[in-house]
Amino acid sequence: SVNPDLGSERQTASFSVEKLMALLDGGTEQTQIRRAVVEAIESDPVFSRENQYFQTQNERYEAAVRKAVHLQKKMNEMGWTENGPEYKYIYRALSGDVAFLLHRVFMRSISVLGSDKQIAKWIPLATQHKLIGSYAQTELGHGTYLQGLETTAVFDTATQEFILNTPKISAMKWWPGDMGRSATHTVVFAQLYIHGKCYGIHPFIVQIRSLQDHSLCPGVIAGDIGPKMNFEHIDNGYLLLKNVRIPRENMLSKFCEVRPDGTYVKQGSQKINYFTMTTVRISLISDEVLTPLMKACTIAIRYSVVRRQSKLKPGEQEAKILDYQTQQEKLLPQLAAAYAFHFINDYLQELFNRGYREIQRKNFDMLPELHALSSGFKAVITQHCTAGVEICLRACGGHGYSLLSGLPSLYTKILASCIYEGENTILLLQTARFLIKCFMASNAGQPVPPSVTYLAAVKHGKCPAKNKLDFLSPDIYTEAYQHVAVRLTSSTAAKLQDLIQSGVKKHDAWNQCTVQLVQAAKAHCHYIAVKNFAETVEKLETKAGIQKIMKHLCDLFALHGIFSNTGAFLHDGYTSAAQMDMVTASYLDLLAVIRKDAVPLVDAFDFTDKSLNSALGSYDGQVYQRLYEWAQKSPTNQMSPAYERYLKPLLHNTLSKL
Amino acid sequence: SVNPDLGSERQTASFSVEKLMALLDGGTEQTQIRRAVVEAIESDPVFSRENQYFQTQNERYEAAVRKAVHLQKKMNEMGWTENGPEYKYIYRALSGDVAFLLHRVFMRSISVLGSDKQIAKWIPLATQHKLIGSYAQTELGHGTYLQGLETTAVFDTATQEFILNTPKISAMKWWPGDMGRSATHTVVFAQLYIHGKCYGIHPFIVQIRSLQDHSLCPGVIAGDIGPKMNFEHIDNGYLLLKNVRIPRENMLSKFCEVRPDGTYVKQGSQKINYFTMTTVRISLISDEVLTPLMKACTIAIRYSVVRRQSKLKPGEQEAKILDYQTQQEKLLPQLAAAYAFHFINDYLQELFNRGYREIQRKNFDMLPELHALSSGFKAVITQHCTAGVEICLRACGGHGYSLLSGLPSLYTKILASCIYEGENTILLLQTARFLIKCFMASNAGQPVPPSVTYLAAVKHGKCPAKNKLDFLSPDIYTEAYQHVAVRLTSSTAAKLQDLIQSGVKKHDAWNQCTVQLVQAAKAHCHYIAVKNFAETVEKLETKAGIQKIMKHLCDLFALHGIFSNTGAFLHDGYTSAAQMDMVTASYLDLLAVIRKDAVPLVDAFDFTDKSLNSALGSYDGQVYQRLYEWAQKSPTNQMSPAYERYLKPLLHNTLSKL
Fold it and tell me: Which residues bind FAD (chains A, B) (predicted)?
């Protein structure tokens, strides 16, 4: 039975939840496929996450391996393939709680970096799981700056082998997933030396464990890096190599080869490889970043209509906490952001598909723009969504802090997305470098990529809004965002030039501008996200109430951004103080409007109870009953040896006299 | 041996670290006492936290109980008493990793709420640990709003007993520390009923477990609430009462008594009790909030001078990451905040001591101000410090994400401080209510407490700064903060009045202003923190470089607040855009200045390696070696059954055909 406090929220939906779900899925057929996958996975007890919050790291690892192996069977059974329409829903249905994710990266890197011969040899072995692969790039002392990697691979012409070494502790491979306990092989990135000359970083296939008994190969020291904030199910590993010899054929050689005599030969363009790395940043957004935020919103919003606290009106029942403006102000902007980023993800996917088609035709012109967008949006979205999940957690008070709410593990997991696949600050500075370059180019009258043509159109006007309703006009707020992005880019470009002209060295000048460059990059992405949301709303069908509610969310996303960052808009007087008061008024008004549809808006994400795995967020809203039932199963409710050992002697005073 | 990259940072300190340490401790004698306590605790293997990151919740609980019992012996051995000068350092030295903290709350509540007779009976029993106490207030469905608690205590005149019940699941006690597995007794807060009439919430001493065999008492269902984001060492519990009878004497009756015939008698003033609750919020700041931030700063800053990444200057060695402006901008404001809040903590302690003396003299005039300050600062400091710890964690990249860095557990623990002892938003609204009241009173010419007299002095001037150096003048920035606090309070008061005058009901009007009221309360606290820091610096001795470096930190704290919140200062034109650019310039300049002393500034916090318990933050900076050594000890480096069960069959293809 559904908690009536939650049930009543669904009766007043201003739109069709099923229609919105289809929009999010990309069509009703997709919804059906998704649901079929979810049903198949969730009805299979091997994939259960029921005891997850009670398990140790060792237990989580074992479960993830069990699931990964079982998944292979399941896919065969169900007729699912890696290229089929179901595939993208499988990982989501498993909530990522499965091993051998790096095995796929191992395969992809061979496909992208290997010669045809290497692909023909290794891919079938990997596909049939005759080996388990990993991908060993990051080192203890080296992450982002690949050129700094210290592992060495010295070519020995006599034996036609590469000799791999970890010359010092900072060169130890550290973090690779599946490597701590599972992998038999890995792709090691190392500095290539031939006849004493360094040729830079290259990839090598290295066997690290016996295929017979899984013991470490000679010269290999490997293990698990230990406890982390999350990802208990993954055996992130370390790897130390001592004179490990591999045959010449094991250097992945699509782009460069070492001939038997030690001649180093470059071949082809590495640009497509570069494109691949760029797409990884986009591909993680949906599963690793948006899904957790959507889950957190679902949990926190459902809980906030079931939880009652204090009285809003004297003499009445305690109020639902979502009726408090402060609670709305915490949660509803996160909900709006989840939708905004869902739509920008669609936009980016489309852009990258286009980019891919161009690259197939050997046209690499789009690469710099794609790199800038993927870097910037990876950083902005992971940052925004991580903060959003934390807000949802805190908005649920003490119960949000219980692992049983599901929110802590969403938070500790999404947090990692700010760090992996490019640390966010560094990525934003990549975007900023592109912006500055394009800004200079525009100023010099040169053509620039479509996403930055607006930089040339510097307008010194003022925001034309006359009353608070004007701020519900997408033209008004989109233009304001554009203005800020241009101002931050142009003013930082000017500072940079001033510094250089005053004699500061280029790299020092750049460093002295980085705090502001980061701001400019964020403003650029924020502008594009707002513009894209507004354009998406414009194109929606006007029936079923979908366009109307999406318009509200778009307005909220835009106005929340202004309200939270008023200085950027006030700075040069583009927006006046009086206009800022209008923004605040419209923004607060919107909270009350969207609050009415908050539950249907999270219902449209269509998470099952099993996928939420939350005592607070279930569809029926029976929060307290579930918390109680769940807590009783905790291993902390078993007898503790602490009683016999310490409590009993203490209470019975048999402890040596205190 | 100290990592030379860390060692070199210490050689250039602009001030005496020992002198600064003495300032923070409140004198060199205090430093000596602190160090003696730390030495005694850390040299005792029972108190070791060495394996903490590898332990399960059950193991953590057992260790905490062991430590709590051992601590009693230790105190006897060392001659430490609860009233001695060592006491405040013990908890810090244990990093709070000890059980029976609620036993002290149990004792305090009896001392404050109990009659002399009750005190005489229960305090000796508790002191001698003939029972283990807890404190059962919060319920599954009720936290902040005490009047909403649902547990009932019905007086039975026939038997002279109270009959305690949990009438529904939402009334179950939930969260009390030490109650899940340890406590034999607890203070239960329940609605008192006599002859069918409800007299509101009262405290009752209830035995929940047998003193003989620790089994649950008849009618009592209790256990552990299961896994949480942190506090694995604490057995937060649940408690369900079914017709549990306790003698009439067990209602704590300092302020109200139920006579044998059921007559309800109120006596004395509860104001002093109210004061006690207020002081708890202040007392947690130092141990639970400042210490974690200081530890996080120590870890992140030491790591940031040892970690090298990318090249700042072409052709040179990779740079220390603390030399990047973006890294400085993440960490140094947190360091400044740690100092700012240390000094505001001193200020609050002093104010509360004064308040206590007044209250002893039956003068309760200071109570509203103390309540507003304790609420506001509890919220502002916990929020700021929690965000600060998270920034430190993220600034350490992947290694920060490892539990072995110590940062994840600092974060997950400090996060709870935003929720317990009053949820932050609710506390800020309490402060705001006080501000609005005082603002109205000032306007009506009535006297107001000292901390808010500034509200009357609304100035419509402009910031007089003419160049970036002017913003290093405390008068300039303190006045700017004051201006913002006044503006936010007065504009929200005006909005509130307008709404009410336009016919909106008072409670609705209040709710519609809460987002802005929260802003006003924060601005008030921020102003006081800046002002207090500036005044503290003013009073410091000018020798040994202490005043100079503290002045820089004060400037940074103030300018970072403006830089991060420019809109508030720009809004009504008090600060112009040109002035804001000066703020930015001065702020960024300061980062480079303070960066030079960053390591000595964290060294002054004087954390031992054992108390940091961090592979990244040790005094010698041997980060990589320590991470590797530590990881090898992880239980995840033991043989996993997953190999025999799943990996071997998979690799050997003995699994049923895939």
Answer: 138, 177
Burial string for B32-70 (b: 16+ CB within 10 Å, else e) reads ebbbebbebbbeeeebbbeebbbbbbbbbbbbbbbbbbb
DSSP state of A209: B
Cβ of B585 under 8 Å from any chain A Cβ?
no
Q: Mean of the pLDDT values across residues B633-657? A: 88
For residues B455 and B442, the answer to whether their CB atoms sit within 8 Å is: yes
Determine contact, residues A348/B535, Cβ cutoff 8 Å: no
Residues of B in contact with A613 (CB under 8 A): none
* Residue contacts between A and B (CB atoms, under 8 Å): 366
Contact with chain A for residue B54, Cβ under 8 A: yes
Asked if the structure places residue A616 within a domain, the reply is no
User: Could you tell me how far CA B89 lies from the centroid of its own chain?
Assistant: 16
Please report the sign of the dihedral spanned by the C-alpha atoms of residue B345, residue B347, residue B351, residue B353: positive
Q: Which of A422-436, A571-585, B536-550 has the lowest mean pLDDT?
A: B536-550
Kindly report, residue by residue over B310-369, the tens digit of the pLDDT.
999 888 999 999 999 999 999 999 999 999 999 999 999 999 999 999 988 989 999 999
Give the residue from A587, A478, A476, A534 showing the smallest Cα distance to A343. Answer: A534
- Please indicate, yes or no, if residue A141 is contained in any of the structural domains: yes
For chain B, positions 365-404, list CB contacts with chain A under 8 A. Answer: 390, 394, 397-398, 400-404
Residue B136 forms beta bridges with which residues? B188
Establish if B29 belongs to a structural domain: no
Question: Does the annotation list A489 as a binding residue?
Answer: no
What digits encode the pLDDT tens for the residues B195-221? 999 999 999 999 999 999 999 999 999
Is A325–B130 a contact, with Cβ atoms under 8 angstroms apart? no
- DSSP string covering B98-161, please? -S-HHHHHHHHHHHHHS-HHHHHHHHHHHHTTSS---EE--BTTBSS-GGG---EEEEETTTTE
Residues of B in contact with A138 (CB under 8 A): 398
Identify whether B59 is a catalytic site residue: no
Average pLDDT taken over every residue of chain A? 96
Domain-located, residue A247: yes
Distance CA A569, CA B442 (A): 33
**A453 in a known ligand binding site:** no
Residue pair A20/A540 in contact by the 8 Å Cβ criterion:
no
Read off the pTM: 0.97
Alpha-carbon torsion angle B466, B470, B471, B476, nearest 10: -90
Tens digits of residue pLDDT in B85-134: 999 999 999 999 999 999 999 999 999 999 999 999 999 999 999 999 99
pLDDT tens digits, A593-635: 999 999 999 999 999 999 999 999 999 999 999 999 999 999 9
3-state secondary structure of B648: helix
Instruction: Provide the residue range defining the domain that includes B240.
Output: 103-267
**Domain containing A172 — which CATH number?**
2.40.110.10
What total of structural domains would you count in chain B? Answer: 1
Q: How many CA atoms, within 13 angstroms, populate the side-chain half-sphere of residue B77? A: 10
The per-residue pLDDT for B458 is 66
Tell me the nearest-neighbour CA distance from A374 into chain B, angstroms: 20
What the block records as the tokens of A160 is 């036609």
Q: Do A641 and B62 touch (CB under 8 A)?
A: yes
Confirm or reject contact between A229 and chain B (CB < 8 A).
Answer: yes
Distance CA B493, CA B436 (A): 6
